[in-house]
Every structure is written in structure tokens, then in C-alpha cells.
Specification:
Blueprint lengths: L1 H13 L3 H5 L1 H7 L2 H15 L5 H29 L15 H8 L4 H11 L2 H4 L2 H4 L6 H6 L10 H20 L1 H8 L1 H14 L7 H4 L1 H24 L6 H5 L10 H8 L7 H31 L1
């Protein structure tokens, strides 16, 4: 997962328009995160046995609720200590409640699923199902106390679950189909990682300095510890899934701007928040796989 992700990020940073220039299959490989994941989700659904459905939902619910609850608590604290328009002086310049919540309330479900496929179980990997509900500004808006969000209709949720549901159905109707589709899971991971890396510009770190890196590390610590405990005591795991879910989602980068368009009072802090969240995504995308691998090895010993 990590090496293809780095290669993709380097390619996007050095030659951001390579996909458009070459077009055809090369562009499909560089920008194909969604179709590659659609196939991967289908195969993931086929690999989940019917009797494991309860485990998947328990894992999903535990991780999602914990992640949102932690972000909510951080928002409550931040509103008491951070100015309404964000910090304007010193090392913390640009830090705002919006940046904190947006970086913490969404898990990179695809990164989580890939890590769990390697270090966890199929049922734990399937827990990404409910994580799709975190995507977009909806949860962030709820945490910040705003209303009127209508970005996600029923068709979007159906579109998210449909590939996995079809795969799940076919895999449980025919064990040979399950075995056939399961073989593609490991193969698709490096291709997805490369495409995901091509959405990350490493140069964004220079725009926010050390604060963005600190925010990314803070996200892992503040959300990771409660997630580990929840996974062990509620989810019935060994904590590996908790660490794997402590990342910032790539979709979170767009959240500050989207919220600013709907709530004008956030327009002033949205640009800095966007840069900070982008760095948090990069930092967590790099550190979470490493920490997950270390924790998994430790628990297996």
C-alpha cells in the first residue's frame, strides 16, 4: 500500500498533468481511483460470508460512532479556546475549529479497508461499509451545529453500497464465485494506492509548515487511542482496526470550502483549514499504515 502511494504522490507533485497528457489507459490508471475501488468493493463483498454480516456491522458501528464522538468532543473544547475566526497570530496561525473537526471526523475508509485486508480479517475490512456515511460535509456540519445540508440523497448511499451488496449476494449464493473474486483483492490494492497517491500534492506541506504535520500527528493520537479501546472492548478486536481507522479522509480536504459556501461565516478561515486538512491527509496516509503494521506485529507476538 505505502510504496505505490508514495510513487503516485511523487508523480502528481512533479508532473500533475501527466494523466491528461498521455490520456487513454495511462490516464485511466492515474485517475482511476473510483472504478478500481468499485471493482475492489465488489470483490470485498463477495469475500464476506453471510454469517459474518453481524461482525461487519458491529465493527462499522463501533469505529464510526467513536470517530464522530471524538470529533464532537474536540469541537466542544475548541469552541472554548480557539477564536471564532481561527488563530491569527503565532505558531497556531490558521488553526480553527473547522480545520480540527474536518480532519478528525472522517476516516479514510479505503485506506482502512486495504490495511485490514492485509493485517486484519475480511470482516474487519468490510467495516468500511458504514464509513462511507462519514464522507462529505454532512457530519462536519452536524458537529459544528449547522443545519440545512442536503448534499447526499438516497441515490448516493445506494450507489455506495450497491457494488458490495451485489458481490456479497453472489459470493453467498455460490462458493466458487466467492473463491474466484477473492483472488483479486490483494492484486487491486497497489493499483488503488497508486491512483490515490496521484490525488496528493506533497508541495502542500510547504504551504502550512510544521503546523499541518503536527495536526496530522494529533489526529492519529486523539482519535487513535479511543478507537483502539473501542475496537478492543466493544468491537471484539485487538486494536489493529482502531489504529487503521485513525486517518483523515481524502474527502475531508474539500469540506472547509463546501461548508464555507453554505455558511458564509467560515469563508475567512476556509483556505487555511483546507491546507491544514490536506497536510493531515498526507501525514496520516503515511503514518497510519506504518503504525498499523507495527501494532499488528506486536499483537501477534
Amino acid at each position: 500500500m505505502l510504496v505505490p502511494l508514495f510513487i503516485g504522490a511523487i508523480c502528481h507533485t512533479v508532473v500533475p498533468d501527466a494523466g491528461k497528457y498521455f490520456g487513454s489507459f495511462t490516464n485511466g490508471l492515474i485517475s482511476g481511483t473510483v472504478p478500481i475501488l468499485a471493482v475492489w468493493f465488489f470483490c470485498m463483498g463477495a469475500s464476506i460470508k453471510l454469517r459474518a454480516a453481524g461482525t461487519v456491522l458491529r465493527k462499522s458501528g463501533t469505529l464510526v460512532v467513536t470517530k464522530i464522538a471524538v470529533a464532537w468532543g474536540v469541537a466542544v473544547l475548541a469552541l472554548h479556546f480557539i477564536p471564532e475566526n481561527g488563530v491569527e497570530f503565532g505558531f497556531l496561525t490558521g488553526l480553527s475549529t473547522l480545520a480540527l473537526v474536518a480532519s478528525m471526523d472522517m476516516t479514510n475508509g479505503c485506506l482502512y479497508a486495504s490495511l485490514m485486508q492485509q493485517y486484519g480479517t475480511k470482516e474487519e475490512a468490510g467495516a468500511f461499509v458504514l464509513m462511507s456515511l462519514e464522507s462529505g460535509p454532512l457530519i462536519t456540519m452536524i458537529i459544528l451545529g449547522t443545519t440545512g445540508i442536503t448534499s447526499f440523497g438516497p441515490n448516493v448511499f445506494v450507489g455506495t453500497f450497491l457494488p458490495l451488496l451485489i458481490g456479497f449476494t453472489l459470493g453467498n449464493l455460490d462458493s466458487e464465485l466467492r473463491e474466484f473474486f477473492c483472488k483479486a483483492l490483494q492484486t487491486l490494492v497497489p493499483f488503488f494506492a497508486f491512483a490515490l497517491g496521484n490525488t496528493i500534492n506533497l508541495a502542500v506541506i510547504s504551504q502550512t509548515g510544521l503546523l499541518g504535520i503536527v495536526l496530522g500527528i494529533t489526529v492519529i493520537i486523539v482519535t487513535g487511542i479511543p478507537l483502539i479501546l473501542a475496537d478492543i472492548f466493544i468491537g471484539g478486536g485487538d486494536g489493529t482496526a482502531g489504529i487503521a481507522a485513525s486517518s483523515s479522509a481524502g474527502a475531508a480536504v474539500a469540506t472547509p470550502i463546501l461548508i464555507a459556501e453554505m455558511v458564509p461565516k467560515f469563508k475567512a478561515e476556509a483556505p487555511a483549514a483546507t491546507a491544514l486538512v490536506a497536510v493531515s491527509v498526507i501525514v496520516t496516509s503515511i503514518l497510519v499504515p506504518i503504525l498499523t503494521a507495527m501494532w499488528s506485529r506486536h499483537m501477534k507476538k
